[in-house]
Design goal:
- It is a single chain.
- The chain is an all-alpha fold.
- It is about 55% helix and about 0% strand.
- The protein contains 10 helices and no strands.
- The radius of gyration is 16 Å and the shape is globular.
Amino acid sequence: MGNNAAQIKRGAQLSSVCSGCHGADGNTANAELYPNLAAQNPDYIVLQLHNFKSGERPNAVMKAIATPLQESDMQALAAYFGAQKVKRQPSADVAMEAKGRLIFSKGSAAGAPACLTCHGAQGQGQAVFPRIASQPVKYTLAQLVVYRDAAKFNNPLASEMKAVAVKINQDEMRAVAAYLATQP
């Protein structure tokens, strides 16, 4: 068994604590609150686990889960979830999704850059930027609101996202979230 296969197997064993919120295969069990981890960039998962552990990304439940994890545990979980197949969300409002696709690919009227600039042509993530395709609408919308409304972030990538989110109004946020949910 190769190193990556061994990591995936170890991650599968460790993932039981994650399954209540994120689903056994990384497809969220509660689309109202939690993101899909399936097919997420493993480096991004590791970064977020470190951010939860350090308190950079405040969330009491995730801090409690991340705190006991060793680096090898984080790598194994990330490998496991990154290897899972994501399930995109069903289409709910074609007109809203079309508006979201336009903002995603062209940017907002207030000057927010196109989402694809950082997150890739289909929102599947690239480099240090996370996969945002196939995320539940309410989760994506809630995250955009956090970026917009937070006073500041210590993390430069989060600060960069805040600079984008303040240039997207609530209706545009809903449209982008609706579009992204349907993407593979």
